[in-house]
Design a protein that fits this description.
The complex is a heterodimer of chains A (324) and B (325). Chain A is of the alpha/beta class and 324 residues long. Chain A folds into 2 domains: 238 residues, P-loop containing nucleotide triphosphate hydrolases (Rossmann fold, 3-Layer(aba) Sandwich); 68 residues, no CATH class. Chain A is built from 12 helices and 12 strands. In chain A, helix 4 packs parallel to helix 7. Chain B is α/β, with parallel strands linked by helices. Chain B has a single domain, classed as Rossmann fold (3-Layer(aba) Sandwich), CATH 3.40.50.300. In chain B, strands 7-8-9-4-10-11-13-12 form an 8-stranded mixed sheet, with helices on both faces. In chain B, strands 1, 2, 3, 5 and 6 form a 5-stranded antiparallel sheet that branches. Chain B is globular. Classes of the chains: A alpha/beta (324), B alpha/beta (325). Chains A and B meet through helix 7, helix 8, helix 9, helix 10 and helix 11 of A and helix 6, helix 7 and helix 9 of B.
Chain lengths: 324, 325
């Protein structure tokens, strides 16, 4: 039984806007096991990025707040830490990388400077020692001729290289947990393959666990061990990746997998399966199951009461009345 | 190709970049170079490739949204670049485009009615207001939107709905040829399926010829009859979709296919070919075969001599050592 590096329980993150309260994450439980690649998958607006930001304590306090729940990292509840305590953890024990490396890297600082920053903050190493570590991590992430890159600026690098730089920056302190928010979405597919390969290698070399936030089920199937499917602020299905793909049980998961066109269209599908309707507003989420009005198999109870989680098989849970 | 609706001949677009304060050193972006492709009537050709391959530029050249450096685009046998303003404007009714970004391709200050009426009024100056409204109503219905959408503004609609409006706009003048420039890339998975189905329906209903530009190979398989693969401004392979997927002939195509994630964890242990290195700059294209800097099958001739497009049956490839079994 793997132990949980990160355990999120009952997380609720709300945004307080002029139009009302947006319940972006509304009661979410996630476990990220040590040494494993955990996926948080869903479409736009499901709350997956907000979950990642909540873990990192990066929800802008002027507009949002974690209103309930716990985020237990090793044995600390991150929601209860002070600003300083959280700042100590960030970059050192838990790191995050984002989708757009161009806007996440500082355009006016050199690569060498940025990649070394976490060490300058979290360690007492000398500048020479830091530079050595920077060169070492740049090499590990596959940047060719790292020494000549120390004085380069982000705009001089390609998208794939910038993403590698961001990964280097996130990994230089050898964090226990890396949160990757859509790290390959903006990259070409051949570069995506390189980056995913890199992430798998780093997991082994540095012994880091990864939480991958993505909308791409293909990427999840390629690299992830555990999957959490999110919809409208809730987790609707979770479990081992093979179990989820072999037996997608929640109508949303099932519908999503059915609607993806496959590269090898052997059966010459003429029309794709589609989930009718649209995601509900998170300003005023419906009572009961949030997927009910798009679900072919919804019944009365679905519209009235929120379904509980039920176990389909070991290591596979679904939040749906069909399985109660 | 005999019954090509539209084809390109040695189509080339090179963008100049000036550099330095004195502008002395002139650099050029080789966006598209000597491309020869044709699309038959009612066919869907997918144009695939990654950033900087030139597919978007090629799409725009084919609609004469930009002027070429060299070469021709023949629409029904006539070079569109030889047409004067009047005749080109008239031809445009027949050749339309659907853009990628549903949030940027609709004028935020125009109502949907006006957005859809614009092409109608531009090309039918005498159309009565009533006829315009009737046609707009019809267009909205064709793309699955309510009549009430007419009075709204773009920001009131979702990405998927806006894309439907973009499609309606493209169809307003009953074109024969439509370029879909990454038309579903910005949409969520479940909405993408809806829009793809819609495009299939419209393609059949209106006998459309499509150029579908995309980097997403899974979409290609569903929608297209043939694929053209582009790399650094060149077409490196072209042929029927199913055949290319079954047996790619150009090494780049092989890597491209291998990189596409398969939504099935049981497939994850398959032998994967990871392409090494980065894309060379289109300002400084490699000599000989442009793919030679990353090709594992590299031999001397690849560096010195550029491979020309050859055909074996309906399969086209530009490689000195194509991957025939």
């Amino acid at each position: 039984m793997q132990d949980n590096l990160l355990k999120i329980k009952g997380l609720r993150t709300y945004f307080f806007t002029r139009k009302g309260i947006v319940k972006a994450v509304d009661g979410v439980d996630i476990e990220a096991k040590r040494g494993k690649f955990t996926a948080l998958v869903g479409e736009s607006g499901c709350g997956k990025s907000v979950t990642g930001l909540s873990i990192m304590g990066l929800i802008p306090s002027s507009i949002g707040k974690i209103v309930d729940g716990e985020i237990i990292f090793e044995d600390k509840d991150l929601t209860k830490l002070s600003y300083k305590e959280m700042a100590d953890l960030r970059g050192r024990d838990i790191s995050m990388i984002f989708q757009e490396p161009m806007t996440s890297l500082n355009p006016v600082l050199t690569i060498g400077r940025q990649v070394g920053e976490p060490l300058r903050i979290h360690s007492s190493l000398s500048s020479e020692e830091i530079q050595e570590r920077v060169l070492s991590i740049l090499e590990m992430v596959g940047i060719p001729e790292p020494r000549s890159r120390l004085k380069s600026y982000p705009h001089q690098l390609s998208g794939g290289m910038r993403q590698r730089v961001m990964i280097a920056m996130a990994m230089i302190c050898q964090p226990k947990l890396l949160i990757a928010d859509e790290p390959t979405t903006a990259l070409d597919v051949t570069i995506q393959a390189q980056i995913l390969d890199l992430m798998l290698n780093l997991m082994k070399k540095i012994n880091t666990s990864i939480i991958l936030i993505t909308h791409d089920l293909g990427v999840v199937a390629e690299v992830c061990d555990d999957v959490n499917v999110m919809y409208a602020g809730n987790i609707v299905e979770k479990g081992d990746v093979f179990k989820i793909f072999d037996k997608p049980s929640h109508p949303y998961t099932w519908g999503l997998l059915r609607s993806i066109p496959r590269v090898k269209n052997r059966s010459r599908v003429r029309r794709l399966y589609t989930i009718k309707g649209m995601v509900p507003s998170l300003l005023d989420p419906p009572l009961g199951c949030r997927f009910a009005d798009r679900c072919d198999r919804a019944s009365d109870i679905c519209r009235k009461k929120e379904p509980p989680f039920n176990s389909i098989e070991e290591g596979h849970l679904v939040k749906c009345w069909l399985f109660a | 190709m005999e019954d090509a609706l539209i084809s390109t001949r040695n189509l080339t677009k090179i963008f100049p970049l000036s550099t330095g304060p004195l502008g002395r050193k002139k650099l050029f972006v080789h966006a598209v170079e000597d491309v020869n492709i044709s699309i038959a009537n009612r066919e869907t050709l997918a144009l695939v490739g990654e950033s900087g391959c030139g597919k978007t530029t090629l799409g725009r050249l084919m609609l004469r949204l930009i002027e070429p450096t060299k070469g021709e685009v023949l629409f029904r046998g006539q070079d569109i670049f030889s047409l004067d303003g009047e005749r080109m404007r008239s031809l445009r009714r027949n050749m339309q485009i659907i853009f990628q970004d549903p949030y940027a391709s609709l004028d935020p200050r125009m109502r949907i009615l006006d957005i859809l009426a614009e092409p109608l009024k531009t090309h039918n100056k005498d159309m009565s207001k009533r006829d315009v409204v009737e046609k707009v109503r019809e267009l909205l219905s064709v793309v699955g939107l309510q009549e009430s959408a007419m009075s709204g503004f773009p920001h009131q609609f979702s990405g998927g709905q806006r894309q439907r409006i973009g499609i309606a706009r493209a169809l307003a003048l009953n074109p024969e040829f439509v370029v879909c420039d990454e038309a579903v890339s910005a949409l969520d998975v479940s909405i993408r399926a809806q829009i793809l189905n819609l495009l299939m329906d419209l393609k059949e209903r209106f006998n459309l010829t499509l150029l579908f530009i995309t980097h997403d190979l899974s979409v290609v398989s569903f929608l297209s009859d043939r694929i053209g693969v582009m790399y650094l401004g060149k077409c490196v392979e072209i042929g029927p979709t199913a055949e290319i997927f079954e047996q790619p002939l150009h090494p780049y195509t092989l890597f491209l296919l291998s990189a596409v994630p398969i939504p099935d964890p049981h497939a994850r242990d398959r032998a994967k070919l990871i392409l090494k290195g980065d894309l060379p700059s289109p300002v400084n294209v490699p000599t000989g075969c442009r793919f030679h800097t990353r090709c594992p099958y590299l031999r001397d001739i690849c560096i010195s001599e550029e491979p020309q497009m050859q055909y074996v049956g309906n399969r086209g490839f530009a490689c000195h050592f194509p991957l025939f079994k």
